[in-house]
Specification:
Pfam families: PP-binding, QueC. This protein is α/β, with parallel strands linked by helices. It is built from 16 helices and 11 strands. A 5-stranded parallel beta sheet has the order 9-8-7-10-11, sandwiched between helices. A 4-stranded parallel beta sheet has the order 2-1-5-6. Helix 11 links the parallel strand 10 and strand 11. The chain binds zinc ion.
Length: 452
């Protein structure tokens, strides 16, 4: 049994601490520091520290994320009664729901205790939520989508637009592996949705250094590939709740706020995606003084699972080429090419297949194979040692027109097509990567013409 105690940012001491430290001398101490100078505790950058100081729920969930990452079984929160009562309307309700949501939405089924709490809070009753399957969507309140560039939240955004519900996007850089791919999708989708960067897209990055110190999930560590075998390691401690709270704290909470997420029925890998989690979270917000205007709505739960979401997205005309589902980085640096090996890739493939649709990524994969093959032909023919030759021009590589024609002929023979030379007017100035791109384009056009 691993125990931890979290010392609140509030300096007021809680009398039970000493008793606890004597009883469990091996207890792990968790504290937060506002600067990057301490080896002993978790450092929060200024923006996050200030937010946590003014919002007890954020503070508590940061300590829960740390506990999850450290494999703690029981966490004691040292928070003064005064601080708790300043933040919540009904402390019994708040603590009841908090315990339940933490237990059900954390990887280790973390149990929490609040020092100085009253005995009655041990009794948890949540039976009334069991039969509810969706939250009512409101169309006249401030609405924000927690947006990751993934397929689900993209379909949710398009669905809101089709219902003429205005919304903003909240994109969070928490140090994820595939940030570049996700940001590219954010850019493409927001322009398709007609959402302007200036007013309606918030990019938040104050959690990045926090998660960097966790070093827990492989989603946060560059280099290691996520496959079906290690898919449980993609889980990031308390990510969903922290993304929701951080998103909320960027809005004026004196007015009603509706937060939309892309969770749905097939989200079974993370415990913080379940419908129970969302109902408890809404109840938790309602029991506070300053977050009681927030409703979190996983609106896709009322639609179903991945298959139904792909079907809806297809009907809404979503451009799936710009939705990144894969847990790994793109297989091609010039184009989005998923791994098709991780759990999320397989679920996505199955969803397109069962709808009789072709995922644009199937084409991307084919592109990637051709790209790699043509790249190898060029590399081998000219015996390039340098691996970055794609970023150079023919001229820089000393390839003259004769050598150029020679390489074009080899590629034409390999793929049995005729190169559209109008694509490349001045071949000397052409980057090798652009040349490969146009070669593939010509191969595809040729293939379609032959089919006719
Ligand atoms: Zn993948």
């Amino acid at each position: 049994m691993k125990r931890a105690i979290y010392y609140s940012l509030d300096k007021k001491s809680v009398s039970d601490n000493d008793y606890l430290l004597k009883k469990f001398p091996e207890i792990v101490k968790i504290t937060f520091n506002p600067a990057f100078n301490s080896q002993q505790c978790i450092n929060l950058e200024k923006e996050l520290f200030t937010k946590a100081k003014h919002n007890l729920l954020l503070e508590i969930f940061l300590s829960i994320a740390v506990s999850e990452a450290q494999g703690v079984d029981e966490l004691y929160l040292s928070i003064s009664k005064e601080k708790l009562n300043n933040f919540v309307k009904d402390s019994t309700e708040f603590l009841n729901v908090l315990k339940r949501i933490v237990y059900s939405s954390t990887k280790n089924k973390l149990k929490i205790h609040v020092l100085n709490e009253e005995d009655s809070v041990e009794k948890v009753t949540i039976s009334e939520e069991n039969n509810i399957t969706s939250v009512l969507l409101k169309n006249n309140v401030k609405t924000v989508v927690v947006y990751s560039g993934g397929l689900d939240c993209t379909v949710a955004a398009h669905s809101l637009q089709s219902q003429e519900i205005p919304f903003e996007l909240s994109f969070i850089d928490y140090g994820q592996n595939n940030l570049i791919e996700e940001k590219l999708c954010l850019e493409k989708q927001s322009s398709q949705l007609g959402i302007s960067k200036k007013n309606s897209i918030k990019v938040i990055n104050c959690l990045k250094n926090f998660y960097y110190q966790m070093n827990d999930s492989i989603d946060l560590i560059n280099g290691e590939k996520i496959t079906i075998k290690n898919s449980e390691a993609e889980y990031v401690p308390s990510r969903n709740i922290l993304l929701i709270i951080i998103t909320a704290l960027n809005f004026d909470l004196s007015k009603e706020l509706q937060i939309i997420t892309g969770s749905h029925e097939d989200d079974k890998n993370s415990p913080d995606n379940s419908i129970e989690f969302y109902f408890l979270l809404n109840r938790l917000f309602k029991s506070t003084r300053i977050m009681d205007n927030i409703t979190v709505n996983p609106m896709l739960y009322s639609i179903g699972g991945k298959k139904d979401i792909v079907d809806l997205g297809n009907k809404l005309g979503v451009n799936f080429s710009w939705t990144w589902t894969c847990h790994n980085k793109s297989q091609n640096k010039n184009k989005l090419v998923p791994c098709l090996e991780c759990n999320d890739c397989l679920v996505r493939q199955e969803a397109f297949f069962s709808n009789d649709l072709i995922d644009p990524f199937e084409k991307a994969l084919d592109f990637n194979q051709k790209y790699g093959n043509i790249r190898n032909i060029i590399k081998n023919e000219f015996r390039f040692e340098n691996d970055n030759f794609e970023d150079m021009t023919f001229e820089e590589l000393n390839i003259d027109s004769l050598k150029f024609i020679y390489i074009v002929t080899i590629i034409e023979n390999e793929y049995n097509f005729e190169f559209d030379m109008s694509e490349i007017v001045k071949f000397e100035e052409c980057l090798i990567s652009n040349f490969i791109d146009s070669a593939i384009k010509s191969i595809e056009i040729n293939f379609l013409q032959n089919k006719k």
